Amino acid sequence: MSTTYNFCAGPAMLPQAVMKKAQGELLDWNGLGTSVMEISHRSKEFIALTDQAETDLRELMSIPENYHVLFMHGGGRGQFSAVVNNFLGENGKALYLVSGSWSRSAVDEAIKLTSDAQIDTLDLLVNDNGISAVSIPELAGKATDYRYLHYCPNETVDGIEIVEEINCPWPIVADMSSNIMSREIDVSKFGLIYAGAQKNIGPSGLSIVIVRDDMLKMPSLPQSSIMDYRLAVKHGSMYNTPPTFAWYLAAEVFKWLKVSGGVAAMAKTNAKKAELLYDFIDGSDFYNNTVSAQNRSLMNVIFYLENEDNNADFLAEASRAGLVALKGHRSVGGMRASIYNAMPIEGVEKLVEFMKGFADKYQ
Ligand code: PMP
Known about the structure:
This protein has 363 residues and is of the alpha/beta class. It has helices at 16-24, 44-61, 75-87, 101-113, 229-234, 244-259, 262-282, 311-320, 345-362, and strands at residues 5-6, 67-73, 93-98, 119-123, 146-151, 154-155, 160-161, 172-175, 192-196, 206-212, 287-288, 300-305, 323-324, 335-338. It has two domains: 24-259, Type I PLP-dependent aspartate aminotransferase-like (Major domain) (Aspartate Aminotransferase, domain 2); 261-362, Aspartate Aminotransferase, domain 1, CATH 3.90.1150.10. A hairpin with a 4-residue loop joins strand 6 and strand 7 (160-161). Pathway: Cofactor biosynthesis; pyridoxine 5'-phosphate biosynthesis; pyridoxine 5'-phosphate from D-erythrose 4-phosphate: step 3/5; Amino-acid biosynthesis; L-serine biosynthesis; L-serine from 3-phospho-D-glycerate: step 2/3.
């Protein structure tokens, strides 16, 4: 059987070892004679699974004790509204940094649920000096009554990663849907971190929320109970029936991450994978990437063919070579190779080799 490398931005490829394990125990999990999908979320076996998942995630991300870890419904976008409804109350204001497509979508949702007056935005322009050089220090000069600052450290569509630390007087809320656990971060710098699962965690639908306990004292808006952080904390993320199979797979991904050396080991390999690809793109006059070096995403590598007439052939030939889902997001065109934790370096090597061959043939 030939190997397929799946570069989809999400739902993305999951570690093969995890998929094989899940396959092996699909019909009989934990010796129960039934699948994990078919048991009560309140059974002692499932609670043991969720306890272990939380312990493993806390260890992987060094999550301090004063943070809650929640497993919620609704993916990334679910959190766009949950953050607003949980923290803004009637009059609260928030500052949203806009660096690309997903951070803009978060703003749209926030305004829809509140009003223009409650949401301030600040465009982060990525230039050759990176982001920090111009805009981030200026944040400290803004009004001080924001309940939180929201930003998206990895713009999945635009291939932009904000590696600069954001220094500001307000709690930071970060959408880490596409770069959670791809590199080490200091969780204590954040008021809340959220991530849709379908890139570095597990199947879609699930989202992970890591929230500092003092954040939960902010006034909230009336909202759906299943997206209420306080209820989620109180009920151990089981106010209603959670997406149990996704939770199980996430737990398996955490175990896999631990035996693979944890986030530090992932970060090393991720840096190598991205370097391989960006170095090749930069050295070629057939492909290009215009994001400034400092803010190039390690997870989503965007590239364009100089001659866009070759796009369809590129995608078709790549697919025949077992390199699938390389088409860029419809809003930006071009190509995108998403190389999350589960993508082995061999996949990137094979992609570079293919890109070389394609350029030689069509140059
Ligand atoms: N934020 C980011 C950074 C994303 O990449 C995505 C999905 N690609 C979302 C939010 C939305 O996630 P979902 O589709 O799970 O709502």
